[in-house]
Amino acid sequence: MGTAYFMVGTSSLSVIGLTYEIADGLKVSPADIAFLITVFALTFAIAAPLTQVFLYRLPRITILSMGLIILAGAQVMGAYATSYEMLFISRGIMGLGAASVSPMCSAIGAGLAPPEQQGRAMGIVFAGLTVASVLGTPLTAYLGTLIGWRNVMLLLALFCLLSMASVLLLVRDRNPGAESSLRHLLRALLGRRSSGAILMTFLQMTSIFCTYALIAPYMTDKFNMPENMIAVVLLVYGVNGVLGNVFVGRLGDRYGPDKIILISLLGLAAGLIILQLVEPVFLLALVGVSFWAFSGMMFHSPQQQRIANIDPAQRSLLLALNASALYLGISVGSWISNFTYVEFGHDMLPLVSLGVLALCTVPFGLFMLLGPKKRRN
């Protein structure tokens, strides 16, 4: 499951590491690369819950495998793109394939673990996305300078197929998902607990990508970083993201997801403040990036654990909606990043991220403070 999640994460984020290579190759602005993230994420956000509604009769492993095949085909299309528009379309198709992969990984992983070990299980599955940050994104950035961005996409297509083969060989789950319908989807979207949790995922990821989508030009502009050092920044971000995910796995089972989520949100805010306030010294920038990544990646495993237990009978659908919210946040955050960078310059990116983050941190913090009092009354 982790390998499939890794391919989704690497496919979605690879263009960040290849920003300058793609921009030079297709004669577009580096800021336009943010829209390649947006179309992937927006397609994913729409397709993920609909996949659960219309394909639930199929075995989950079949849906996952179909998604990896679509993902590989879209990578090949992107590799041979002769224009920005063609690459844009390939990224939309890629999002369609990814929408069949991520929710299935989370649902199978949650179903295989007993309740007292779900936090750890979700951490292992979601590690695929964090490892994509630590290895996939910086590796694509490095390979892009060696073999070109087109060959990098062909390599990613090959690894998607290898991941599918490993899943078919090693994962024994052959069960279909729970029956889902548009009525179930509407109930999940309108339910107080489920809608609030899904909105929090959306806002947290939007906050991250308001800055992360254009991290390469941000670091270049503010910290005078050479373009060939972006792989180092992405590696630092990814390593600390993996550490945050590993750190939170056991804590979620011990202390419960709510406390860990609040700590993650506050730590993410602290990392963004560091990035905004430090002097233009590269090593100080890496400190801010490290804190930002560690805290940001602490969020997702306990959040998935929390959502998976809202309604176990509709776990697959709820996790699909959570994944949709995650990628919708990537889409909206990337768009905001492009708009902010073009209209106001790089200095505003962390401030905008902080503003979005406050929209979910403040209500959740109040819930944590007032919830116990309400229960005592």
Can you give the helix content as a percent range?
over 70%
Distance between the termini: 44 Å
Question: Gyration radius, to the nearest Å?
Answer: 19 Å
Question: Structural class, judged by helices and strands?
Answer: mainly alpha
Taking the sheet with the most strands, its summary is:
none
Order of helices and strands: HHHHHHHHHHHHHHHHH
Strand content: under 5%
What is the oligomeric state here? single chain
Number of strands: 0
Query: Mean pLDDT, nearest integer?
Result: 82
Q: Low-confidence segments, ≥5 residues, pLDDT <50?
A: 372-377
| Number of continuous helical runs | 17
- What is the 3D form? globular
Commentary on this structure:
The chain is mainly α and 377 residues long. It is 83% helix and 0% strand. It starts with a helix and ends with a helix.
What can be said about this structure in brief?
The chain has 377 residues and is mostly helical. The chain is built from 17 helices and no strands.
Q: What labels would you give this structure?
A:
377 residues, single chain, mainly alpha, 17 helices, 83% helix
Topology:
Blueprint: H1 2-17, H2 19-26, H3 33-55, H4 60-79, H5 84-98, H6 102-112, H7 118-147, H8 149-170, H9 182-190, H10 192-212, H11 215-223, H12 230-255, H13 257-277, H14 282-297, H15 300-308, H16 315-344, H17 349-376
